[in-house]
Amino acid sequence: MAQKRISREQVIHVSELARIELTDSELSQLETDLSNILGYIDKLNQLDTAAVEPTLQVGDPGTLWREDAVTNHPEPEAMLQNAPAREGRFFKVPKIID
Amino acid sequence: MTSPLHKLTIAEAATRLDRREISARELTRACLDRIAAVDPRLHAFLTISESQALAQADAADLRIKAGGAPALCGIPLGIKDIFCTRGVRTTCASRILENFVPPFDATVIERLRADGAIFLGKTNLDEFAMGSSTENSAFGPTRNPFDLERVPGGSSGGSGAAVAADECIAALGTDTGGSIRLPAAFCGIVGIKPTYSRVSRYGVIAYASSLDQVGPFTKCVRDGAIMMQALAGVDPRDSTCSARPVPDYARALTGEVKGLRIGVPREYFVEGMQPEVERAVRSALANYREMGAETVEISLSHTEYAIAAYYLIATAEASANLARYDGVRYGLRVAADNHIELYNRSRDAGFGAEVKRRIMLGTFALSAGYYDAYYLKAQKVRTLIRRDFEQAFERCDLIATPTTPATAFRIGERTSDPLQMYLSDIFTISVNLAGLPGLAMPCGYDQGGMPIGLQLVGPPFGEETMLRAADAFERAFTPQRPAL
User: Dihedrals φ, ψ of A71, to 5°?
Assistant: First the structure.
């Protein structure tokens, strides 16, 4: 259901879904900003869209087909150039499984 | 006396390069010198690649000497810092990509490179193309060349300002809700958003994939046609890119608009609009009638819902597209003990306030229990907006509107109220929702000397009609240049 504002608990929940750690002041600011925006967006409910199909994509319909052939050859060294941390040919991350 | 080289258009420069009156190196040097002279005041560029540009210029000179070089060979361009450029830092004006150096070129960059175009550097933008003023750049705002206290528009504000200030001959931008047309209007130049799917997006950092489109900023309409010719066309690496043949855009520039039916939407002349903007656009319509075109009143009755629908669709898509910035494979990483903390902290440190706001709104709109009420609802309203245009194009060949309700606003004026900033895009956003081609060009100046933008909107793949009408208007209009 559409709502006209968002609670602080919801902002915290959404920040967890979005994987962004927010400070207290950021949470407060977002509670205000998102509530204002949702209040504005509520005007969409003036429109009866029960019988309207959604638009998922514009432009030419259909998908372009091509041969399933390898055109980009593996370049691990080039791909690892931007790695924040690496070990040999691997991206290095904190321990995931205990 | 001939004008300084950096002031040339693509068409003028190409002729003089072809006749060998000037070299690509001289032209590139002139643009680099202009950048050195004015960019400390404008901040249109985030990265300047001088040595690469000069090397490209020397290669272009050899090619021009050999004969038969493409129209863009030797032409110095500014590139919005959202296009991946092999070996040149690509930041998207975000801390999270501050040190990212792409190992590949976007398709449009590859095409321009193959044509021998010269890349002067990467231009400023609102972080991840999210904004209407270029104030959301993590590296500081760009200033409007007509008034340094005002914004150049956004998100492609660096490209708009760079072309208006003659720092480059033309530039590349992207437009998701007005990000080419708004800066073109505020900076008094020509900006084109092609039909959705006309130009490949491969290698363009994604914001909202059902809306994003690539297009040029130029000093005149003919240059826009030349750029479109180089950019448009099928790309096997972008499955949304249209396979339709690309017409010869320059051939559309006949100067002839007799019998053209121009639709004027009554919803686009709103209360509270700057009177000079309405006057300039109405006077442009009168010019079209004098040239033999016909103007017809049309209605785009769902216009007032466009911004609300856009901010749900665009942010929902952005929340998915920006999930890739996780501090693992590239981009900023903030150290943490476990991988969830690593994501959370890297994203908090790497994204600016507006990007976070949009990711949060989009994540909320897609979250369990809210999807139907927000995202699906917005997609249905998108259908209504699209149908408005379909019905309008039964009665006209082209639509003409103001590009924005007012000329460029002051830096800082709208930063505290996100909603006010969003409303800057009220006349451009529907065009993206409907996937149509749109063009912005100068049609007058307000009392303070700030440019006023006329927007022309065509039916799907109607770029030729749009360019023809824009060129016809331009033939009787002398644009002003900023005094810098």
Answer: -115, -20
